[in-house]
Specification:
By secondary structure, this protein is an alpha+beta fold. The chain contains three helices and four strands, in the order βαβααββ. It has helices spanning about 20-25, 55-65, 75-90, and strands spanning about 5-15, 30-40, 90-100, 110-119.
Length: about 120
């Protein structure tokens, strides 16, 4: 089976996430890195977007899941994102997602969670 890898690097968004008092009152930035190994079902036809998995749909799904509601833990958020992607896009064979909080600590660039799922 042939696969194609789609990836996002540092997709930036503001989300309502966290359990600390200041996190409950406002949004904070998140960075998302994601890789998708997608089953190639047919040859690419350059003028037909339906011959590939449209990465705009992947991006929209990630943004929707991350901004839908307040979530207390990054672990919970990353599980929701991975579950939704795997359910919505059956052509995804493997997903690897990393969600990080760049402003969590002043002494490091970011802290986060990484998750990988396969069919």
């Amino acid at each position: 089976m042939q696969t194609r890898r789609i990836f996002f690097t540092q997709l930036a968004l503001d989300a309502r996430i966290g359990i600390l008092e200041h996190e409950l009152r406002s949004t904070q930035p998140l960075h998302i890195d994601a890789e998708f190994d997608v089953r190639v079902a047919e040859p690419v036809r350059d003028h037909n977007i339906r011959t590939v998995l449209d990465y705009r749909q992947l991006r929209e799904t990630i943004l929707d899941e991350c901004t839908r509601a307040h979530v207390n833990l990054l672990e919970t958020l990353i599980e929701h994102v991975a579950d939704t992607l795997m359910e919505k896009f059956p052509e995804i064979q493997r997903v690897k997602i990393r969600i990080s909080k760049p402003n969590a600590f002043s002494d490091c660039a970011a802290v986060g969670i990484e998750l990988q799922r396969e069919r």
